[in-house]
UniProtKB/TrEMBL annotation:
This is C-type cytochrome. Gene3D superfamilies: Cytochrome c-like domain (1.10.760.10). Keywords: Heme, Iron, Metal-binding. Transmembrane segments: none annotated. One of its GO terms (molecular function) is metal ion binding. It comes from Flaviaesturariibacter flavus. PANTHER family: BLR7738 PROTEIN, CYTOCHROME C PEROXIDASE-RELATED. InterPro entries: Cyt_c-like_dom, Cyt_c-like_dom_sf, Cytochrome_c_Peroxidase/MauG. Residues 90-272, 283-457 form the Cytochrome c domain.
Length: 457
């Protein structure tokens, strides 16, 4: 059996090397054992109504900041009947109603007027003056202490954590996710064994912001590891519950959240990639499939009834995309070390982080709707992914509505001669749009055909 497994892995490596360069070796990712027995419906209910983030703002304060929103995007009942889809109302231990951010802040997005569950939110704004304001939180804290002590009691932990991390949670451009940076900030203040919070940092902080584009949840069922660099190994539930670090009192609370993770994973596994909403030239897509399978499938897999995904890590010298994300695991190893000696790695379903100098070649199901592209969201269209000469250096897009480009497949964007505040600036470390130039070798006709095929996935 071991010889057979070794032979299969070797074959995968040989096949993939034909498409990424002779002599370069992708690294197969072994499967990680997951907890089974989850109920997808229960997972959905916990996702949209659960108290995995046990803290937030008092309801009346929250209402002052969220006056206009479309509650029909995610119909809910009870306390959440008139709450934005990416927040969850809950009753604190002292009876006060508080409102907390939920997972849909990052893992759901509106497209063509509908909420797409599992689609990464590419519209978040953590630029200066738009994210969390520590000064405002301190003022609110003082107000609640004096005028509404019960509300302060219910929200104190949330306010303390958010005002502590706020100064470092700032992005240079709009539309990128700071989840990796947020996690690093939180663990810097938490004891790895107990998860108890410390107002002063317990680890040296990394002030360099690492931007990412949130990958779609429906790909997870194919993956043997989590995250762009494939370093999330072991139990996926332990990673999915990481948002609990925002407000957990200690690991006794985290254990309660952990019990729901098989259900949440079952729900995530049930998600399917959205069907392309435009027209498709089927004969051209058929030609594109042949080009794709000859040039791209060695890393990204094949699709259809007998499709297979190889789960390969591609070395940095091969992929060539911005290195800040994977390199930060080596330049600031204290965060990887924290995780690997924390509660997350304990028990009968542990998780661990295994750094790698490179990135995973992801599955491409539903890739048409997941713009922008590359791990840092630096490329606005698939056309530009396949032809690096088309990639804009400085660009922005309309964040108020989905201006979708059905020809180039991705965002309609505005390009400028220089960077402006909030624009995507590919000169910045972490934001570069280099690498993945394999499509440059294709002809214009071949690239056009591949794009048409990708619409069908």
């Amino acid at each position: 059996m071991k010889k057979t497994a070794f032979f299969l892995l070797t074959c995968i490596g040989v096949i993939a090397s034909a498409y990424i360069g002779i002599g370069e070796k992708p690294v197969p990712i072994p499967p990680s054992k997951q907890r089974g027995g989850g109920n997808a419906q229960d997972g959905y209910r916990y996702l949209v109504n659960g108290d995995y983030v046990r803290g937030g703002l008092p309801l009346n304060i929250f209402r002052m900041g969220y006056i206009s929103f479309d509650s029909s995007l995610l119909p809910r009942t009870g306390l959440n009947a008139n709450i934005p889809y990416d927040f969850t109302a809950q009753r604190a231990a002292n009876g006060e109603v508080i409102v907390a951010p939920n997972c849909l802040q990052c893992h759901a997005s509106v497209f063509d007027g509908k909420l797409v569950m599992g689609l990464g939110n590419a519209g978040v704004d953590f630029t200066k003056g738009r994210g969390i304001n520590a000064r405002s939180l301190t003022a609110l804290e003082n107000l609640l202490k004096k005028k509404f002590p019960k509300q302060y009691e219910a929200s104190a932990a949330f306010l303390q954590v958010t005002k502590t991390i706020a100064p470092d949670l700032v992005a240079d451009v709009r539309g990128v996710n700071l989840a990796d940076h947020l996690a690093a900030l939180l663990v810097a203040h938490r004891d790895p064994a107990t998860f108890r919070w410390s107002d002063s940092a317990l680890l040296p902080k990394n002030h360099a912001v690492v931007p990412t584009d949130t990958p779609p949840w429906w790909l997870l069922k194919k993956k043997n590891a989590m995250f762009y660099n494939g370093f999330g190994r072991g139990d996926f539930g332990r990673f999915l519950m990481a948002s609990n670090l925002l407000t957990t009192g200690d690991t006794s609370e985290s254990r309660l959240v952990d019990e729901h993770m098989p259900d949440l994973l079952a729900y995530i596994y049930s998600l399917k990639a959205p069907v392309y909403s435009g027209s498709i030239d089927r004969p051209l897509a058929t030609k594109g499939k042949a080009v794709f399978e000859a040039n791209c499938s060695g890393c990204h897999g094949t699709y259809g009834k007998n499709g297979k995904y190889p789960n390969l890590l591609i070395p940095s010298e091969v992929i060539g995309t911005d290195s800040l994300l994977y390199a930060s695991n080596y330049s600031t190893p204290q965060f990887v070390d924290w995780f690997n000696r924390s509660w997350f790695r304990q028990g009968d379903h542990p998780a661990q982080l295994v750094p790698f100098s490179g990135y995973i070649a992801p599955p491409l199901d539903g890739v048409w709707i997941t713009a922008p592209y590359l791990h840092n969201g630096s490329v606005p269209t698939i056309e530009a992914v396949l032809d690096s000469r088309q990639r804009p250096r400085y660009w922005t897009r309309n964040f108020k509505k989905n201006d979708y480009d059905y020809k180039r497949v991705g965002w309609i964007y505005q390009e400028g001669p220089q960077a402006k505040a909030g624009w995507y600036n590919t000169d910045l470390p972490g934001y570069r749009n280099t690498g993945h130039t394999f499509g440059d070798a294709l002809s214009d006709a071949e690239r056009k055909a591949v794009i048409e095929y990708l619409k069908t996935l």
